[in-house]
Amino acid sequence: MPIYKTITVSPTTKVYIWKVTEPEAELAKGVELTTHCQNRMDGMKSEAHRRAFLSIRHLMAKAGYVDHDLYYDDFGKPHLKDGKFISITHSHNFTGIIISETDEVGIDIEMQRDKILKIAHKFTPIQEYKTLANSEALMRKLTIVWGAKESLYKIYARQGLSFLRHINVIDFSFEDTRTVAEILYEGKRSHYEIEFIEFEGFTCVYALKMMGG
Question: How many helices (H) and strands (E) does the chain have?
Fold first, then answer.
């Protein structure tokens, strides 16, 4: 199918989400990859990964970019050659990008799964969320927190950054659809806005670095 969802975060920032249903040959039409990206795709044994990879190029096209506009730094973080900020994510049959003219951004899509209850203590002080009525609500909330921390990790892009020790997501209610977070690492503190949406058993979280933060 074509684009699943477009979100205008601000006049300078947009999110694009794709639901991957097309066969690989259809997604490959009209997509010209750089040598680096072609090599990456050739190394993917999973057809699902290749389809996701190609769908991200269609999302970029929606935003007016081709693969040659993209490059990766040594940390594996994607950048646009025109200086705008980009972040990329995929989970199962959903892919997403966020592009901003003005703010450093990160995005993450996660499938909602009970497994997160078992690993939560590794990435967040779980006692913060024990007030929730049931395990499904707790699972949903922890998925948002995980997605927020993944998004922030993508922005910060430093070796040694710990989800548990260095990234704090302020508690929130589902109705808010947003919260704030901070990273305290190597004596530096930075602040971020977090927004989230849920659809079809998935959670999409995106983060923007706050001005002066």
Answer: 6, 11
Render each residue's pLDDT in the chain as its tens digit; 213 residues.
Answer: 579 999 999 999 999 999 999 999 999 998 999 898 999 999 999 999 999 999 999 999 999 999 999 998 888 899 999 999 999 999 999 999 999 999 999 999 999 999 998 998 899 886 766 666 688 888 999 999 999 999 999 998 888 888 988 999 998 999 999 999 999 999 899 999 999 999 999 999 999 998 765
Sign of CA dihedral 69, 73, 75, 79: negative
Which of 5, 30, 14, 184 minimizes the C-alpha distance to 105? 14
Per-residue tokens: 170 = 């302020």
- Does the pTM surpass 0.90? The reply is yes
**Torsion over CA: 58, 60, 65, 67 (sign):** negative
Ranges of H-type helices in 43-102? 47-62
Structure tokens belonging to residue 106 = 């990160």
Q: Tokens 């983060």: give the residue.
A: 207
